Amino acid sequence: MTCIVGITDGRTVTIGGDSAGSDGWHVAVRSDSKVFQVGPYVMGFTTSYRMGQLLRYSLTIGEPDTWDVDRFMATTFIDAVRECLTAGGYAKNDSGREEGGQFLVGIHGRLYLVDEDYQVGHTVAGYAAVGSGYLVALGSLHSTAQTAERAGLDAHRRAVMALAAAVELTSEVRPPFTVIQAS
Predict the structure, then answer these.
(1) Contact 179, 35 (CB under 8 A)
(2) pLDDT tens per residue, range 124-183
(3) Rounded to whole angstroms, how far apart are CA atoms 92 and 3?
(4) pLDDT score for 164
(5) CA distance 60 to 8
(6) What sign does the dihedral 100-46-87-80 (CA atoms) show?
(7) What InterPro entries does the entry give (predicted)?
(8) pLDDT one-digit tens code per residue, 19-76
(9) Cα(158)–Cα(148) distance, rounded to whole angstroms?
(10) Residue 97 binned pLDDT confidence (cut-offs 50, 70, 90)
């Protein structure tokens, strides 16, 4: 139903997303963005618009209060996300196993992928993608990673190129694109 891409150079995080909403049978272009900034966090979601609305409008979390941002994200940040999704009626509990959804989040130049089981991933590659168009987008991001500087491609342009590739090669990704950058 979507494609969300993220790129970091260690200082700035760029997250971009498409505008498709899909139920598997029908695709609609929506005006409510899947990419947004909440305080110091830039986020882009897939899985459910409801989850994205809760993250955007109900999540209350301050900046990392420690030099160990990875630890903060895996504990304090995820605890706040779980509480937010549970209070909003979105989190699922199946035989004691709690699930949310997938989204990308950037903070302090770091890019994280939060998975449905609340696992927090931090890629070495400097880019990530989620949603139905993620494989195509990852291919685009990989192919431009080494040549971006020589070709004059900044992170914003690379994100748009990856999203455009996903539109071309998958059925559930649609423009317009929203791209946000945060340091």
Answers:
(1) yes
(2) 999 999 999 999 999 999 999 887 777 778 999 999 999 999 999 998 999 999 999 998
(3) 23
(4) 97
(5) 24
(6) positive
(7) Ntn_hydrolases_N
(8) 999 887 888 899 999 999 999 999 999 999 999 999 999 999 988 887 899 999 999 9
(9) 8
(10) confident
Both tokens of 106, joined, read 């950037």
Token pair 């882009």 in the structure block, residue: 44
- For the record, the structure tokens of 117 come out as 């089981």
- What confidence score (pLDDT) does residue 96 get? 79
- Amino acid making up residue 163: L
Question: Which one, of 81, 147, 72, lies nearest residue 114 by Cα?
Answer: 81
- Quote the CA–CA distance of 162 and 16 in Å, as a whole number: 9
Complete DSSP assignment for the chain: ---EEEEE-SS-EEEEE--EEE-SS-EEE-SS-SEEEETTEEEEE-S-HHHHHHHHHT-------SS-HHHHIIIIIHHHHHHHHHHTT--EEETTEEE---EEEEETTEEEEE-TT--EE--SSSEEEESTTHHHHHHHHHHHHTTHHHHT--HHHHHHHHHHHHHHH-SS--SPPEEEEE-
Quote the pLDDT of residue 152: 76
Residue in this structure with the two tokens 């993620």, named with its chain if needed: 134
